[in-house]
Amino acid sequence: MSGIVAASAHRPRVALLATCLVDLMRPSVGFAAAQLLEDAGCDVAVPVQTCCGQPAFNSGDRATARALAEQVIAAFEPYDYVVVPSGSCGGMVAKHYPELFAGDPNMAGRANAFAAKVHELVSFLVDVMKVERVTAAFPRKVTYHDSCSGLRELGIKAQPRKLLQTVEGLNLVEMADPDVCCGFGGTFSVKYGELSDAIVTQKARNIAEAEPDVLLAGDLGCLMNMAGKLTRQGKAIEVRHVAEVLAGLTDAPGIAAPTKQG
What domains sit in the chain, N to C, each tagged with a CATH number? Predict the structure, then answer.
């Protein structure tokens, strides 16, 4: 059994924006996020949702991005907070929705108010709910990758490490350059495949040199990119979203399960 030591008796109404990748590729991250929020003392809802609009936004299709953003705002507006288990999608909603609707007399105010209550999952637990520790156990050696959007747009660095240090048996070792890009960048990895591969090759080298059992991060796109490279290299390193470890939901195989080298 695992959980969080809650710091407040007040139960805010929190809407979980699960993200497309979690919904389609790794639902266990959504379940872990919901458990962590509930254990922290939140009333959690998962509204009917669609893409946050980031792929369209990054590709210059502002009309589609605005249409999707309007749907997200309408679905999540009634809640006290919106929490996202992804620095990338969280950054889109919190930082770029106001940009999308700047100067729009009907939507600018709503977009700004909405963005102000959006938080990435682990930063919400630490910075808003004042969670000090979790009660999960994970007796493994792990290293942590700082995803670009979470780190640079939302200031997420100390928060996951703070909670990971309270996981029973967990040994956190830092890789070289944990805050350097993994090469994913959403559509960047499609448009600039050779450059993306060069970046993730160096990232995989840094990960392997830290000799962890498990690689953790807070963004599923980054995790899938690094997991794919490590798997192709035959590296026996498990890959997981940090929420799964903090919630103690680690019975299912990792994104990249350990394999024998050779």
Answer: 13-128 (3.40.50), 141-247 (3.40.50)
